[in-house]
Design a protein that fits this description.
- This protein has 776 residues and is mainly beta.
- It has one domain: TonB-dependent receptor, beta-barrel domain (Maltoporin, Chain A, Beta Barrel).
- The protein contains eight helices and 42 strands.
- The strands form nine sheets. It has a 22-stranded antiparallel β-barrel. A five-stranded mixed sheet has the order 4-9-10-7-8. It has a three-stranded antiparallel sheet with strand order 1-2-3, with no helix packed on it.
- The longest helix is centred in the first third of the chain and has 13 residues.
- The radius of gyration is 26 Å and the shape is globular.
Length: 776
Amino acid sequence: MRGSLLASASAVALGLLPTAVSAQASDQPEPGVDAETETTEEISPTAQREGNEIIVTATRREARLQDVPVSVTAFQQEELTEKGIVGYERLARETPGVVLNRPTQNFNNFTARGISTNGYSAGLQAPVAIYIDELPISANGNSTILDPNLYDVERVEFLRGPQGTLFGSGSLAGAMRIITKAPNPGRFEASALVDLGYTEEGGLRQRYNAMVNVPIAQDTVAFRAVGYYRNEDGWVDNIGTGIDDANSIEAYGVRAAVLIEPTNKFSVKLSVNKEVSNPADSSLTNPALGTYVRRTAQPDLFQSDLTAINVTVVADFDFAELTSSSTYSDLTGDFIVDLAGTYNQLVPFSLDAVGYDDIFVQELRLASTHAGPFEWIIGGFYFDKRRDVDFDYRTTQAFLNQTNTTAFSDLYYQRFKNFTDISEKAVFGELTYRFSDSFWLTGGLRYGEVQVQTTTRGGGYNSNFLTRGYCTVFTALCGGFIPALTITPIQSSVGLLAKDDKLSWKASMSYKPSRNLTTYATVSTGFRPPVVNARAGLPPPAAQPNDITIPAGASSDKLTNYEIGLKGSFFENRLTANFAAFYIDWNNIQVQANRVSDAIQFATNIGGAVSKGIELELVARPVEGLRLQASGAYIDARIDDLSPTEAAISGAEDGIRLATPEFQGSATATYSFPVGDTETAFVTGNVAYVGSFPGLFPNVPGQPGVQSPQYDLTDEYVYANAYAGVNISPDLTITAYVENVFDNDAINYVHPEAFLDGRYGRLRPRTFGVRTNFVF
């Protein structure tokens, strides 16, 4: 059925071929454009230059970057390669107002502009949407999320502030887009990047990337393929498994695309993306055991396997350009985690969960291209996701023996399966009216309906083994009573249907006092879909009857962003500056909490919060060969509306900070100079500062005023990198680097839940290496 939908959706646009009449805009820079200049300003996915201007499509239509009333930061492939950026960490550190909450590999939740209550968001939609081209890959916090490869991308862009009008319910606080390069039918291209490094406290780091682009029919058909392989030793020792450097990773993948352009009026691109990421253990540590030490009986495995197929059709008309994007993806994620930290290793149990995501996404949009004061875009969006999860709770043979349990045929005392259906349907549009070249207004609307429902399959079983085991170990707490073992078959049941329809809107005013300066004021909204708790109504365990009953779930939260900004270039483009100030009103906040007695996760709502701050980006070229770049953000994000009941169930307090630093910033300096007739050398220094912030709400859910034993803050830290290299020719660059120059071991993540023995993420130790980049 998904395949039929994919074919039929693309056929809608294919049928328009006979009437397509206007040429597509090329995304290649024009001859003579300085490549370094192009990478210094904020750029969006299909940016191109016209003279000294940058044309962007960050708002789903072409516009000059300076004219777009959105805060955007982006990285081109050249910058990613130069800095050795292959993952999300460095992107976040160099994007103002953004923090990456990353407990370990394949777990990535971004916080933008302070919109986060904790970095994990178990059971909740992440507040920042992550896209690979048109495929959303962001998910809820307790599911594995792929670390995608960032080689041969057109660019990676980060849009800050709610993007609900154009990107839907998942973009509450922003959207990050990874835009891959399309095949080039005009010429043969090939490249390779080899990165070999050594990590202190660990070992060898190997990263291999290659690309080939082959015109099959000159200027008409082309094929492009990218392959990569990563094999990296870890640096965290697991004393429970006895494995040193346990958090090693092996990852590999292939991305291939065919572009067909029968005329310059029409194109079809078919792409396939296969990525596999297999970390051997988690990177989370337990400071009580040592700096880079963790303890689990078996490795924690958070592994991902993604296959995605996309068909994109573009047809240009006299008055508008039509784009149809159809994507089908299959994502398998392993979530194997030791839970013995819940009872300080005295009650051994683990969760073996495997999730299977089946996703289909269709977007159809029509954007005006005609001259005139009105510019518009209209579109429709359909998202269908089926998530199947197998939950198997495991203990150890030793604990079965200790509790005299013989009723199970293996080590699993509870097994069940469920599936969740998530769908979103939306229509959207934006309209711009230009009163003059220096003043225009833009308005946008998106109306969408979201449905979420979870069904438990029959055939599994539950038991009171954990309660029985708890009472065996903590006899006094159970009054000396050890209950008899009971095993209950799980019956098939259909959960509550969570359904909500929302209207997101945006309004902005832009004014250009001069060609090189644009100011804007924007109001925009966003929301997240509702959440149903899988164990809604479950009473507390008999051993702790005063604990809370699991609530039904969480309804949609809503956010309104008020923003003013300016984008300008000065002194003949030797200085560019982007500034934004924002005020965000976040209401009916979805939060995640854990029940004290058994650590069961649940979602609920609390009143509201306010986040206000400023963001600044500067790029300067004071003298020939010297490029200076700086960015930073100050954010004050706090709970400002909280009832006593909401405080009790969530552990929050009125006036407390949300999970974001007050200040975060970075600075980079690069100096290039000739060293021969054709060779040039460069040296680069990069430093980032991230302030401390809380990892969760301060109090125990259900126990007002009692501080949670898990409550803690991250460290404030400075992270520095140094690079030196030589461009031997336009086709060959060799770079030596040191990452984390001062070997800072700061804690940059605090996990909010009690069940983990190791709850702290740390910066990667100092790493030395050499990168060699070939372009053929």
